[in-house]
Amino acid sequence: MEIKHTFNQADLDRLTKVAVDAYQHTESFGSSVGAIESVSADYPSQFLALYAEKLANGYTLHPTMPVDFNQYGGNQFFRAYMVKPSHVQEEELKAIKAKVEAEYRAELRRQYDLHLEAMIADSVARAEREALKKQEAARQKLVEQARKDAIAALGEFDA
């Protein structure tokens, strides 16, 4: 049986890379944390003020995502996608990497516990089968001895 619950740095590195790549291409929204942030407002002056504030705080305009002006019915809004500054990304990535490692180690522990329980169950089942075989063999011996004793007491059937 192959044991798959041992720590493997290459596996952790692969999982971490996937999480970092996802972070780099994800917009922060609700509980989702990503390197991209949407800046939007209903009026051009509000939008420009928010945009200027983000620029002053080290954010940059995302190189490929659009700057939008959308109008729905009587409502309008302006939106741009911005990339968080590197110091913010570094802090968020530290937390993401720690979470990935904790989840990886928890999964290793879960696999270990499952493997341990499977081995225990297998050992118990094997021991129970052996005990049942011995019990059946002992019963069979008792039946054979009882038959011999009964024949000795009654004699062989002769009719």
Give the SSE map:
Blueprint: H1 9-24, E1 36-41, H2 44-56, E2 60-61, E3 68-72, E4 75-83, H3 86-154
Antiparallel strand pairs: 1-4, 2-4, 3-4
Helix pairs in contact: 1-3
In DSSP terms (H or I, runs of 4 or more residues), the helix count works out at 3
Terminal Cα separation, in Å? Answer: 62 Å
What are the segments in which pLDDT stays under 50 over at least 5 consecutive residues? Answer: none
As a whole number of angstroms, the C-alpha radius of gyration is: 36 Å
One letter per element, helices H and strands E, the order comes to: HEHEEEH
Average pLDDT for all residues: 92
Which percent bin holds the helix content?
55-70%
Query: How many strand units?
Result: 4
The general outline is rod-shaped
Oligomer state of the chains in this structure: single chain
Largest sheet: 4 strands, antiparallel
Q: What fraction strand? A: 5-15%
The helix/strand class is alpha+beta
